[in-house]
Write a structure and sequence with these properties.
By secondary structure, the chain is mainly alpha-helical. The protein is 51% helix and 7% strand. The chain contains 18 helices and six strands. It has a three-stranded antiparallel β-sheet. A three-stranded antiparallel β-sheet has the order 4-5-6. 39% of the residues are buried. The structure holds carboxymethyl coenzyme *A. Carboxymethyl coenzyme *A binds next to helix 17.
Length: 429
C-alpha cells in the first residue's frame, strides 16, 4: 500500500508522498512542498536530505554495511580488482571476461598524458599541495580533450571515462616524480592498472622497481574500499557542479577540491600527522583523548567518527587486517601502528566515544598502509582521489541520465538586516 505523510501548517493538512528504497529506506518527498505550502525545509549540512535516488551504492550506517551495486565491499575486496570494481560501479554489472579485457585495453590505450601538460606541472611552486595540483590538472584536461556532447554514443562515453581513470593515475605518479626532480616513468602496456601505478611511482633508472604482487593486492584493496561512498561531500560536489551541465572534467575537479579537506579525504594525512605528534610527545595517547573530549578545544581525534556510520566503518575493519598483513609481510614494525592500536583500545571503551558513536573510520588505518607501501604523506589524499574516481564518474553519469535531473539550487532562510537605505560615506558615523 502506498504510504503518505501528512504535514499540518496553519491548520491546513498537506499530503506528502513517501518514497521507499530497495533496502527499505524511507523518505518523505518534499519536492512540491514549497509550491504547495510556501514553506521550505531547513537542513544545514543536508544530513536529513536525500538529493537523489541512486542505484549505485548502499550504506547502512547503523549496521555498518557498504555495498556497490548490491555486492558487499568485503566480497569485492577479497575477490575483485580495482578495474573490475570500477567497471561494476560505472556500468552496473560485473563485466564478462571479454568486457573486462576491452575495458583494460582502453585504460592502457589512454594512459599517456599529453606532453604539453608537463609545462603545467613544472610551473607549480615546489611547495604546492598535490591535491591542488591534481584538481587544477583534471580541470585542464578539458583543454586537451573534447567535452562529451549531449548525445554521445557509448564508445565516446567509455573512452572519456577510461581517459579520466587512466590519466589521473598517470598524472599523480608524474607529479610525484617531478616533485623529486626525477625522470618521469611512463605507463607500461604489460602491467595491470595498480602495478603500473606502483611502477610509475617507484621505478628509477638507477634502481629498477620489482613488482611485488602482494603490494599490488594491497593497493587493489585500498582503491576498492575507496571506490564509492554514495552522497558524501566530494560526490555531492561532483553532482552539484555537474548539475550546471558543466563538462565532466570540471565536475571531477570540484570533487577533488572537496576531498582535500581534513574532515573528508584529507583525514588520512591528518591521522598520520596526529599519530606522529603523539609519538613525538612520548607515545601516550591519553592527553590527546582528553583534548578530543574538551568542548573548548577544536582538536578532534582524526580517523574517528563518521557522518553516516554510527558503528565501526566496515572499510576500517578490512583496512586494519590489510595493514596488519602488510606489515607482517614486510617484516616491519611501525611505531605509529602501535600508537593507533592503543588509541583505539582506549577510545572505544571511553564513554564519550561510545555515547557519541565514534568508531574508527577507514582513514584510521589507511595512512599506515600507504606509509608501508612507500607513498609520501602529502600524496595520501591523492591516493583516495584515484580510488574515488569510479564513484564520481558513475554518480555523474547517473545524474546526467536522470530524467528527473534538476539544476541544484538550494534555498535559505535569510536572517540578515531588513531593508534599509544606503548612507553616503560622509554621513556614516
Ligand atoms: N573526535 C572528537 N569528537 C568528535 C569527533 C572526533 N573525531 N567526531 C565527532 N565528534 C563529536 C563532535 O564534537 C560532536 O560532539 P557534541 O555533539 O558533543 O557537540 C558530535 O561528535 C557530533 O559531531 P558532528 O561533527 O556533528 O558529527 P558528524 O557526524 O557530522 O561528523 C565527521 C562526521 C567525520 C566530520 C567527524 O566525525 C570528524 O570530524 N571526524 C574526524 C575527521 C575524520 O576522521 N574524517 C574522515 C571521515 S571518513 C572518510 C570519508 O568518508 O570522508
Amino acid at each position: 500500500m502506498k504510504k503518505i505523510a501528512s504535514l499540518t501548517l496553519d491548520g491546513k493538512t498537506y499530503e506528502l508522498p513517501v518514497v521507499i528504497g530497495s533496502e527499505g529506506e524511507t523518505a518523505i518527498d518534499i519536492s512540491k512542498a514549497r509550491k504547495e505550502t510556501g514553506f521550505i525545509t531547513l537542513d544545514p549540512g543536508f544530513a536529513n536530505t536525500g538529493s537523489c535516488q541512486s542505484s549505485i551504492t548502499f550504506m547502512d550506517g547503523q549496521k555498518g554495511i557498504l555495498r556497490y551495486r548490491g555486492i558487499p565491499v568485503e566480497q569485492l575486496s577479497e575477490h575483485s580488482t580495482f578495474v573490475e570494481t570500477a567497471y561494476l560501479l560505472i556500468n552496473g554489472e560485473l563485466p564478462t571476461r571479454k568486457e573486462l579485457s576491452r575495458f583494460s585495453i582502453m585504460l592502457n590505450d589512454h594512459s599517456l598524458v599529453h606532453e604539453d601538460m608537463r609545462a603545467f606541472f613544472e610551473n607549480f611552486p615546489k611547495r604546492a599541495h598535490p591535491m591542488g595540483i591534481l584538481s587544477s590538472m583534471v580541470n585542464a584536461l578539458r583543454a586537451f580533450y573534447p567535452e562529451l556532447p549531449e548525445r554521445s554514443d557509448e564508445e565516446e562515453i567509455n573512452i572519456t571515462f577510461a581517459r579520466l581513470l587512466s590519466k589521473v593515475r598517470t598524472m599523480a605518479a608524474m607529479s610525484y616524480k617531478m616533485s623529486l626532480g626525477h625522470k618521469v616513468i611512463y605507463p607500461r602496456h604489460d602491467l595491470t592498472y595498480c602495478a603500473n601505478f606502483l611502477n610509475m611511482m617507484f621505478d628509477s633508472p638507477v634502481r629498477p622497481y620489482v613488482i611485488d604482487e602482494d603490494l599490488v593486492k594491497v593497493l587493489e584493496v585500498f582503491w576498492i574500499l575507496h571506490a564509492d561512498h554514495e552522497q558524501n561531500c566530494s560526490t555531492a560536489a561532483v553532482r552539484l557542479v555537474g548539475s550546471a551541465r558543466v563538462n565532466l572534467y570540471a565536475a571531477i575537479s570540484a570533487g577533488i577540491a572537496a576531498l582535500w579537506g581534513p574532515l573528508h579525504g584529507g583525514a588520512n594525512q591528518a591521522v598520520i600527522e596526529m599519530l606522529q605528534q603523539i609519538y613525538d610527545n612520548g607515545g601516550d595517547p591519553a592527553p590527546f583523548i582528553v583534548r578530543a573530549k574538551d568542548k573548548n578545544d577544536t582538536f578532534r581525534l582524526m580517523g574517528f567518527g563518521h557522518s553516516i556510520y554510527k558503528t565501526y566503518d566496515p572499510r576500517a575493519r578490512i583496512m586494519e587486517k590489510t595493514c596488519h598483513k602488510l606489515l607482517e609481510k614486510l617484516n616491519r614494525d611501525d611505531p605509529l601502528l602501535d600508537i593507533a592500536r592503543r588509541l583505539e583500545e582506549v577510545a572505544v571503551k571511553d564513554s564519550y566515544f561510545i555515547d557519541h558513536n565514534l568508531y574508527p573510520n577507514i582513514d584510521f588505518y589507511s595512512g599506515i598502509v600507504l606509509r608501508a607501501i612507500g607513498i609520501p604523506l602529502d600524496m595520501f589524499t591523492v591516493m583516495f582521489a584515484i580510488g574515488r574516481l569510479p564513484g564520481w564518474i558513475s554518480q555523474w553519469k547517473e545524474s546526467i541520465d536522470d530524467p528527473k535531473w534538476k539544476l541544484h539550487r538550494p534555498r535559505q532562510i535569510y536572517i540578515g538586516p531588513k531593508m534599509r537605505d544606503y548612507i553616503p560615506i560622509d554621513e556614516r558615523s
